[in-house]
Amino acid sequence: MCTRRRATGMSLIEVVVFIVVLGIGIAATLVVFNRVTSASVDPMVRKQALAIASSLLEEIELRGFTYCDPDDPKVYTAAAATATECTSAAYIENIGPDTLPSSTAETRYAIPQFDNVNDYDGFAMSGANIKSADGTTISGLGDYSVAVSVVNAGGDFSIAAAEALRITVTAQHVPTGTTVSLQGYRLRYAPNSP
Fold this sequence. Notes:
With 194 residues, this protein is of the alpha+beta class. Helices cover 25% and strands 16% of the residues.
């Protein structure tokens, strides 16, 4: 009797199945690698947005919060936000930039300058217009924008609404949509406050 030896190895079908499975595994690995690589920039973008928001929030919180505009001679003696306590009704501090008598509206960079927390309400910067407090353009921030909102928040502390402000600074990396929003509070400081 003649015995035949059976050939050892892989058949064509087994090789094709192996190549298909290997191809799927490599494709899945590349997809994961692509996602990890593209997401590796997110921490840097988020950190930059956080730095922009925190520096602007700190700048705002360092401003005064008084009844009368700091340009008013009665700023340190006023006990309320009234026309009789301040030099005139024009000097009463309200939410938003002030327009004092015979002057233009206050801005962040030019005189008359923001001098009170609530002057920053509605302030925004974007792209190449993101600047430091002294007006110096900060390079490399062309893809970012920042906006400020200031609202009465005394109710958050069970005090009169106008005695506290909530400051919200929102910075965004426009291309990715990464947004960082920081909030801070400023309680009114006036030497004669009740």
